[in-house]
């Protein structure tokens, strides 16, 4: 059984391209015998035609290109004899009558390919298409091909495309682009098991990708649709190719030499998947190719409408068979093609994105609700359909790849991450809204399994720098995204603002950040009313603080945020580099909680005095984390600071956050300020990271 592979001019343009062809042929040889049909190297036919018309200016370059291929593919004696043959063929071409010169391009390319395959140790037979293909004489052509190829046992038959002879025996061609047809004739004659047209685009597309960038491959189409496309200007296939293959019942595959494992088109006896196959153009006529009976009137008005929206006048729209022919001014053919492609082929497919949410606390639950409520808007705006496919707390999880997980009801116990790694489709998003100190160690496994990660868990990022860098590297190496805007300032775009600077090599000079919600709540409420201690207690009871509020007062939470901010700005800050001045004395740290509160009450006069002193200076007290570039590198600290009225943090209320970023490009700071906390804000920020 034979497999027929045809390669176009750009697939054999140079030695590198030819090596690719030989690889593809090698792969096919594992499946059966191969007939390799080739075009002339790209540009060669045009050059030979000019030469026939008396313009020999491209001849030297053409000869040199063939010799260069020979030098690259062969060595030693094989190189010499291949080069000699090239020169012999060129001499014969120059001596040949004008109308025969064009037939030498395919002789040159296929002789080189045949020699190379032989050098590789294969049994090769070079079949002379000039003797085997008789123009317009199918039965005779088939008979000759069968006889010739039955007489050889060679594993590879190499045959020139394009060229043939007429009934008088005179050499001629099958017409421009005719190599495809040659291949179909070989395939039909031999009842080949496969006919592959290898070209430089991924199959037949909904439009010419050079004219319409949004064009996409049609994976499967009927013979009839392929014929219509080819007849109306789709250059990837020479129209006469279809009939012999169809009559012999052989599928045609249109494949891309430059991405052999990529997308391609199979042309076969199938029903087309959609009523419209593609848009093609030739000169000022555009054709919307139809594959089945459709309402042509409706399509015609859709065409007029699409063109009108694009500001293009349709000169004529008329049916032709199942197709619609559209005429526009030649100057606007390209925009018209794009407009029609948009109208008929770009109904944006909605892409499903599965979410696996770890953490079913306030933020996790808010995110689940938000995904449900915003589904329609999100898919409209972004083309993505989000599905909550998994949810977990520290003990249970539930996974349903169909989406629609809204609670942990009927959850099972076990390791959520293991289950996600097992089940998640590529490109899914793992969302960490836990407070886990250890979950981040599984992030690399998740990246490797093809998941992206979005996190609101700042404990995952405020780890030693090497571990932080390893997480980033794991994401990068696996081509996944890792986003965590929510870890600082909830929905405020603090990290993004720093990343913009870092990406543009704008060095940060100074960051001042008020990012501890608890401390701002306490400091901004402090004054004439309740004591400092009772404000801390109220914050704890409201669930605003860590279970032990001293973690907030001691600057632990602000420290984590400062590490994340600094690293986002490209500074490799470590915990021990930060000079933290807690708002309470060291003695209050090691003691039981009630003793701590008693101690805090006793300190009330100290707090009151500090407050009065700030007021006298026209300032407010704020808990500020800063990073500053000095001549000796970066310096970082966290402390209570008096901020004057012209400072953005002066008016911060409650749990609001603010950040000031000064850099070379921004000597007057970028200021971002707003709500620094809240489950809905956090969920909105996670959602934004998921969709960004
Ligand atoms: N070499 C010929 C041409 O350029 C035939 C082909 O490539 O199919 O038209
Ligand atoms: Mg071609």
CATH topology of the domain at 494-675: Dihydrodipicolinate Reductase, domain 2
- How many angstroms separate the termini? 52 Å
Give the overall pLDDT as a whole number. 94
- Assembly category: single chain
CATH superfamily of the domain at 494-675: Dihydrodipicolinate Reductase, domain 2
| Poorly predicted segments | none
Structural class: alpha/beta
User: What does the radius of gyration come to?
Assistant: 36 Å
Tally the beta strands: 27
Outline: elongated
| Bound small molecules, deduplicated | aspartic acid, magnesium ion
Looking across the biggest beta sheet, what order are the strands in? 3-4-2-1-7-9-10-8
How would a textbook summarize the main sheet? 8 strands, mixed
* Tally of alpha and pi helices: 25
Percentage of residues assigned to helices: 40-55%
The proportion of residues in beta strands is: 15-25%
CATH architecture of the domain at 494-675, please?
Answer: 2-Layer Sandwich
Given this structure, which CATH class of the domain at 494-675 is correct?
Answer: Alpha Beta
């Amino acid at each position: 059984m034979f497999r027929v592979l045809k390669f176009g001019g750009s697939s054999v343009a140079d030695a590198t391209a030819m090596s690719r062809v030989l690889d593809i042929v090698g792969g096919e040889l594992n499946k059966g015998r191969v007939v390799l049909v080739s075009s002339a190297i790209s540009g060669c036919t045009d050059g030979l035609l000019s030469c026939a018309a008396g313009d020999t200016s491209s001849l030297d370059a053409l000869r040199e290109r063939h010799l260069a291929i020979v030098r690259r593919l062969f060595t030693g004696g094989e190189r010499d004899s291949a080069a000699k043959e090239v020169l012999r063929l060129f001499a014969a071409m120059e001596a040949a009558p004008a109308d025969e010169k064009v037939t030498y391009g395919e002789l040159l390319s296929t002789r080189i390919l045949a020699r190379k395959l032989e050098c590789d140790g294969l049994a090769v037979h070079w079949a002379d298409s000039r003797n085997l293909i008789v123009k317009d004489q199918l039965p005779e052509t088939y008979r000759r091909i069968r006889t010739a190829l039955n007489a050889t046992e060679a594993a590879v038959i190499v045959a020139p495309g394009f060229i043939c002879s007429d009934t008088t025996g005179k050499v001629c061609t099958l017409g421009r682009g005719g190599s495809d047809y040659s291949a179909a004739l070989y395939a039909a004659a031999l009842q080949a098991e496969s006919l592959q047209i290898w070209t430089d685009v991924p199959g037949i597309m909904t439009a010419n990708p050079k004219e319409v960038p949004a064009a996409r491959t049609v994976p499967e189409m009927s013979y009839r649709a392929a014929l219509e496309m080819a007849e109306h200007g789709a250059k990837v296939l020479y129209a006469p190719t279809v009939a012999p293959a169809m009559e012999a019942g052989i599928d045609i595959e249109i494949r891309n030499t430059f991405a052999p494992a990529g997308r391609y088109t199979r042309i076969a006896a199938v029903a087309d998947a959609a009523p419209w196959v593609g848009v093609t153009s030739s000169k000022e006529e555009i054709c919307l190719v139809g594959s089945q009976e459709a309402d042509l009137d409706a399509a015609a008005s859709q065409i007029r409408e699409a063109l009108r929206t694009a500001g293009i006048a349709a000169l004529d729209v008329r049916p032709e068979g199942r197709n619609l022919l559209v005429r526009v001014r030649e100057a606007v053919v390209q925009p018209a093609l794009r407009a029609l492609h948009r109208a008929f082929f770009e109904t944006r497919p909605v892409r499903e994105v599965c979410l696996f949410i770890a953490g079913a606390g306030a933020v996790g639950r808010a995110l689940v609700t938000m995904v449900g409520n915003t589904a329609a808007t999100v898919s409209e705006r972004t083309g993505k359909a989000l599905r909550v496919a998994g949810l977990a707390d520290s003990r249970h999880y539930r996974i349903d790849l169909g989406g629609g997980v809204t609670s942990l009801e009927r959850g099972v116990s076990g390791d959520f991450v293991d289950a996600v790694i097992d089940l998640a489709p590529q490109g899914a998003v793992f969302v960490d809204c836990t407070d886990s100190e250890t979950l981040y160690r599984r992030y690399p496994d998740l990246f490797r399994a093809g998941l992206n990660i979005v996190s609101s868990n700042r404990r995952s990022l405020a780890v030693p720098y090497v571990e932080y860098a390893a997480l980033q590297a794991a994401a990068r190496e696996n081509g996944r995204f890792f986003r965590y805007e929510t870890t600082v300032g909830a929905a405020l775009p603090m990290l993004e603002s720093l990343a913009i600077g870092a990406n543009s090599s704008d060095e940060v000079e100074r960051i001042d950040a008020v990012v501890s919600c608890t401390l701002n709540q306490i400091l901004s409420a402090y004054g004439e009313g309740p004591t400092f201690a009772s404000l801390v207690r109220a914050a704890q009871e409201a669930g605003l603080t860590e279970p032990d509020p001293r973690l907030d007062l001691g600057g632990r939470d602000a420290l984590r945020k400062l590490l994340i901010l600094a690293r986002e700005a490209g500074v490799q800050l470590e915990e021990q580099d930060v000079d933290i001045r807690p708002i309470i004395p060291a003695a209050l740290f090691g003691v039981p909680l009630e003793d701590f509160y008693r101690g805090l009450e006793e300190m009330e006069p100290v707090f009151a005095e500090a407050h009065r002193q700030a007021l006298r200076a026209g300032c407010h007290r704020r808990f500020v984390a800063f990073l500053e570039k000095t001549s000796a590198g970066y310096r970082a600290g966290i402390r209570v600071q008096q901020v004057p009225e012209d400072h953005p943090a002066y008016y911060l209320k409650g749990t609001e956050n603010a950040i000031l970023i000064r850099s070379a490009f921004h000597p007057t700071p970028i200021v971002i300020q707003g709500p620094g906390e809240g489950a809905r804000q956090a969920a909105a920020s996670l959602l934004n990271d998921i969709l960004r």
